Amino acid sequence: MQLESPDEDLPAIQVSLNEFVSAAEQMFIPDQLDNFLRFVLAGRLQYHNKLARIFINARQGASAPPMSQYQLYRDIDSVIGITRDLPFQLPLAIFPLASFRDALTEDNHLKCPLSCPKVCGFSSYVQYFDKHTFKDVIGIPLHRIPNMALGKADRRHITRIFFPQLYRQGQSPAIPPETMTVIYEKCLRPAVVGLNPVDRSRWPITYSTAMNLYRDQKGKFHFGTVDFPSNLLDKLGPKLLEMFQMQDGLHGTFFVHELRGTKGASHHDPSNAGARHAALNAVFHLFDMSLVRPEDWVVDIGLEIQHEGHIDIFHSLDLHCIFSQIQYRIIDDADWHNLVFERYFPPKGGPVANALQHFPSASYYRQWQTLMDGLDKDHAEIIQNHHLQWFHQLYWVPHPESDRMWSTRKGGKGWIMLPPGEPRHCPRIAINPRFIGKDMTVALVVGTP
Length: 449
Hints:
Layout: E1 12-15, H1 17-27, H2 33-42, E2 44-47, E3 50-56, E4 70-83, E5 92-94, E6 111-115, E7 119-120, E8 137-141, E9 147-152, E10 157-162, H3 177-195, H4 207-213, E11 226-228, H5 233-245, E12 254-259, H6 273-283, E13 297-307, E14 326-330, H7 333-344, H8 363-373, H9 377-391, E15 396-398, E16 416-418, E17 428-431
Parallel strand pairs: 1-3, 14-17
Antiparallel strand pairs: 2-3, 4-12, 4-13, 5-9, 5-11, 6-7, 6-8, 9-10, 10-12, 14-16, 15-17
């Protein structure tokens, strides 16, 4: 059974930017236009008579500066585990009624090997089944498999239950209400109450009663949790799976544990073994490591590279190390403030250009908007004026066009080309007027000093 584009399971080929551009240029001929469009727009390439998926690695083939000129840090961005148990050493806050928004609906790049219609498993999960039953196996992205939130053991953690037998190609992964009723009344509530009867009164008898309990008079849901003691979790996992196995369509259930947003809490030196272990232990603090099997887990590692030489690029007009050609405009004082600065740091309540590009994707811009939203108008003005003094110290910035941060539009009145010549497509930059004419040693240099 084959999945349709763009979800088909294809072999992957990683290429550098140079390799991607070179291949695209070779295809940009009349009899190859279909292949060209498929390559540059869909990331597909016919390779040795097979269709492959192209991934671009911008770092591949790039030259690195000398080790003495940069610092390398590492942290753990996220952790995902696929198990058939609940390996926690902290209480699990279980949702009697799970929030629909807590189901996994976005691709986390993990797939479930699913042989239709009998068996589902992961590389480690597959060992629980007879490997000889895996015929016509296809890889199904996890977020396409019907799932629901079970509970949380930490602010940044969530455990979900996945039901591979409910998967239907081309259909929504949402679990229908009648199935949710079976899950709650025949599996979840009996398992929890059977192991921890003291909390019986906190679990509504029926699913419909739970729906009414967690919905206010305006029809809005307020999803609560009931803490389940950590010393019973080793029994809860198997009990849940046993009860799911007794229900039609709920066989082969498994748990997915996800820790998100841990970046910044686990910074460490990647060359220091002790620091690496300490960072991993800090992230896994909620798990009982005696129950954790490494082969069941995926850890997303982030690298942060700091190159000091790149910090001051806006404090010089010697641009030959940055650009091979540019077009620039010397901005007057009024436009430097009203057009340039206020586009990069818009005032609270000020007009926002429609269909902005680049800016909404910049992390600083989103942080600035969040900051402005949290301040009253007077305090927002103080903060903006403080940033303006810093902005005045910049020699140049990308010229903010009407809808984008970086523009390469060709020529036009008032634009000066460097090196001199006919107008052409290249980056447009705005020059701070404070550094032109006042200091005669400052000169724009592109190409050669």
